[in-house]
Amino acid sequence: MSIVQHLIHGELVTKGERTADVFNPSTGQAVRKVELASRATVQQAIDSAKAAFPAWRNTPPAKRAQVMFRFKQLLEQNEARISQMISEEHGKTLEDAAGELKRGIENVEFACAAPEVLKGEYSRNVGPNIDAWSDFQPLGVVAGITPFNFPAMVPLWMYPLAIACGNAFILKPSERDPSSTLFIAQLLLEAGLPKGILNVVHGDKEAVDALIEAPEVKALSFVGSTPIAEYIYAEGTKRGKRVQALGGAKNHAVLMPDADLDNAVSALMGAAYGSCGERCMAISVAVCVGDQVADALIAKLEPQIKALKIGAGTSCGLDMGPLVTAAARDKVVGYIDDGLAAGAKLVVDGRGLRVTGNEDGYFVGGTLFDHVTPEMRIYKEEIFGPVMSILTYESEEEVIRRANDTDFGLAAGVCTNDISRAHRIIHQLEAGICWINAWGESPAEMPVGGYKQSGVGRENGVSSLAQYTRIKSVQVELGGYTSVF
Ligand code: NAD
To answer: Which phi and psi (to 5°) does residue 243 adopt?
Structure first.
């Protein structure tokens, strides 16, 4: 069985250390192994990055951006191959995989603008014959630890801009679907990135702890579940590192009586069931104002959920693939059992789905619960599967209070045709990303991150500069020269 290798100092390396199986979730078969880096292997990557950093830092931003332009071209040329790799190990449909790659390419495009973004400020005559300027400087060696659910896009949120800012980056991708992440990193080297500026080490807690503890690593970017986000934030900040740690979610959609229901249903179908619900921005709760809204919503959702085309992610024309692992499937089924036992009404049951020809795949069908209450675990906890809960309240005030009655705060939205109401509600929703009559969009120039237990910090856009640069301000006495301005 082939092994997914580390990428250290521009070379693919195998260390003969511990390995983990990588599965194709559509078949349930192990398809390859991935090396799990020891502390010594991580240190080798850190040493490589540290050695490469000074020359890269002194490379003009415009030259660094040119590497990103070539990287973008290579990503576009390899779209089909990368989508296939994502789909084979993650399980999402080829269309979903291509979509995540396109969104990641937008981050590369943003990084191409580094010369503009890094310009800083200039202030003339701040004192007698004194001018001042500020600029953004790289930190040195920085690291990213990424989740399984976007093996292409989430790493691309991080390292293109970090590297374009002049840093050297170490990436520790998810060990569950590492192949596309590694291949994409190789393309950046092919685009002309010097050796050592991007190293990829695969691994588990041991590799992550090595990155947290290494004094050479100045900043850690994490995206994943809330318990690990909290661990990395606590351990990293304790050691004086800059840490941003984006965690889990329980995203609510608020449906008002005047909502365009067809539009809402179309948004919810994609938001709740796309990528099998394994999206941080998935909608898992629809909060309706009034029984009539809930009944009309269910009448439209039920047939569409039952008609979802589900199969191996690598087949064309499907709506949904499997969950990522057998453990993820069992966890989701456990939540459905729990919701039923707690008294929620199971409108559509996705358990026990068998896909002909893929009987061992980790499939769960689209699932819908009605009459969910705030005490239930299916309401409170992140399920990360194709399960949506419906709750009904009588007033706008109550619905806002309830939508905010969650430990998470990544995303939320409202469906209404009253623009004043939309603004009023959005203003009160406690979430880092909000939508009005839409779902899921978040362009590369806008910040991504949440409130409450959804984490700390922001990826994407100029907000990322707070993570990957430090600002220097300089005052200069102009001596004999007198400004004419
Ligand atoms: P995860 O927390 O299990 O893993 C994320 C990373 O942490 C992986 O690289 C993994 O190897 C590493 N890791 C796992 N256990 C560890 C430990 N004990 N110590 C140190 N490192 C450890 O998350 P996941 O299951 O891969 O991803 C799904 C989660 O990510 C969901 O909760 C989802 O909401 C979240 N997510 C959030 C966002 C966001 O923008 N906030 C985006 C994508 C995913």
So the answer is: -130, 130
